[in-house]
């Protein structure tokens, strides 16, 4: 960009420097004409003075000599200045048209669709940049629009889903209230179902809070040295109740004492969201592999699970807010589609990056963090 701007400055400077050349050429022609006026022109001027002013031939000739010969330098100067300003005017006019086209291009940045932005040849580098910005703005607007649509759909789905467990909770509580002498075994069954539905209701309400908090909550980091090996081991243990029913396991490969400078609570949320995703979309009876290692000045954590291969077009959107791999609301595996989007924001706030790849049934989420902070 700097090189392009420097080239544009050189072009403009060259045009300004060349602007006097047409004036010089015209001035030279005028010089020759005035110094070598044809006899017919001289006679015509003298005869006009004789007729209009009633002068003698000698007086009329003196006027000609005084106007054209003795003041030739003045005529040359006036004509050169006029011609110079005319030349500069056309150069500046051309440049101002280019600047006006630039302004039009900036105005068209926010136009939806339409033709690409066009610029004069000397502004070709700016034309490229403006078109890139226009395409990026259009892409972001499309992503934001899709996210808003997903959010609206999720709100509708969640509002509908909340009614189901709430109705069950009210129904079972009514049964328990109306039948105080209910057999203990049946009462325990109803209480268990009610508790299960209440937990589901709590989960759905938490999703509502996640949706409303996402755009309002700024990520503030309170960093310290975090024992990553201890954190990951603790999280693997915490996920045992979710893994055991489907005969899944979590296997950790991390050197003892591996540490990173980060916000422990935010970092725990990142790995919690990634592990929840791995548990939800892995096949029964498989292992979730968690690996952590240090490479140069960065610490890497990879979470690998085995299940369905995620299509490429879904991989490109997986970190977008409100995006869910499983669009069905019939299962309890999917949340509001915010977990991975939040994980990405937290990782980037630490100066790190997060990526995903999926092939042949193996999906790997990889987080890279600067060892000593950003």
What does this protein structure show overall?
By secondary structure, the chain is of the alpha+beta class. It has three domains: 109 residues, no CATH class; 62 residues, Helix Hairpins; 147 residues, Heat Shock Protein 90, CATH 3.30.565.10. It is 62% helix and 13% strand. The chain contains twelve helices and seven strands. Strands 2-4-5-7-6 form a five-stranded mixed β-sheet. α6 runs antiparallel to α7. About 2% of the residues have low confidence.
Strand count, sense and barrel status of the largest sheet are:
5 strands, mixed
What is the typical, i.e. mean, pLDDT? 76
Task: Please give the count of helices.
Answer: 12
CATH class of the largest domain: Alpha Beta
**Total strands:** 7
Give me the Rg, rounded.
40 Å
Total separate domains: 3
N-to-C series of helices and strands: HHHHHHHEHHEEHEEHHEE
Structural class: alpha+beta
Estimated helix fraction: 55-70%
CATH superfamily membership of the largest domain = Histidine kinase-like ATPase, C-terminal domain
Name the poorly predicted regions: 327-334
The end-to-end span amounts to 27 Å
Describe the strand arrangement of the main beta sheet, using strand numbers. Answer: 2-4-5-7-6
Query: Per DSSP, what share of the residues sits in E-state strands of 2 or more residues?
Result: 5-15%
What CATH architecture of the largest domain do you see? 2-Layer Sandwich
What would the principal axes of the Cα set say about the shape? elongated
Q: Quote the CATH topology of the largest domain.
A: Heat Shock Protein 90
């Amino acid at each position: 960009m700097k090189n392009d701007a420097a080239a544009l400055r050189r072009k403009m400077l060259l045009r300004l420097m060349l602007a006097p050349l047409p004036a010089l050429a015209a001035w030279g022609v005028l010089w020759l004409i005035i110094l070598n006026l044809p006899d017919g022109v001289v006679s015509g001027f003298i005869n006009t003075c004789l007729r209009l002013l009633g002068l003698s031939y000698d007086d009329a000739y003196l006027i000609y000599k005084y106007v054209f010969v003795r003041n030739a330098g003045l005529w040359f100067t006036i004509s050169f200045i006029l011609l110079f300003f005319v030349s500069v005017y056309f150069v500046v006019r051309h440049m101002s048209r280019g600047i006006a086209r630039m302004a039009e291009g900036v105005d068209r940045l926010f136009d939806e669709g339409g033709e690409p932005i066009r610029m004069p040849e000397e502004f070709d580098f700016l034309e490229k940049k403006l078109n890139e910005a226009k395409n990026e703005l259009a892409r972001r607007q499309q992503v934001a629009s899709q996210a808003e649509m997903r959010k609206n759909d999720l709100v509708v789905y969640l509002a509908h889903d909340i009614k189901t467990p709430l109705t069950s909770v009210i129904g079972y509580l009514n049964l328990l209230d109306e039948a105080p002498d209910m057999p203990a075994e049946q009462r325990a069954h109803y209480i268990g179902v009610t508790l299960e539905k209440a937990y589901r209701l709590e989960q759905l309400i938490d999703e509502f809070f996640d949706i409303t908090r996402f755009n309002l909550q700024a990520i503030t980091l309170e960093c310290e040295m975090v024992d990553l090996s201890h954190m990951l081991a603790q999280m693997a243990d915490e996920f045992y109740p979710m893994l055991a029913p489907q005969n899944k396991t979590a296997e950790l490969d991390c050197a003892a004492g591996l540490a990173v400078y980060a916000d422990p609570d935010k970092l725990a949320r990142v790995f919690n969201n990634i592990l929840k995703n791995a548990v939800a979309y892995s096949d029964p009876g498989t292992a979730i592999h968690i690996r952590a290692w240090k490479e140069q000045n960065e610490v890497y954590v990879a979470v690998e699970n085995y299940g369905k291969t995620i299509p490429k077009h879904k991989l490109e959107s997986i970190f977008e807010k409100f995006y869910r791999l499983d669009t069905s609301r019939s299962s309890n595996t999917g949340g509001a589609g915010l977990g991975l989007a939040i994980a990405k924001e937290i990782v980037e706030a630490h100066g790190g990056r997060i990526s995903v790849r999926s092939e042949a049934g193996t999906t790997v989420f990889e987080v890279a963090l600067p060892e000593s902070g950003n």
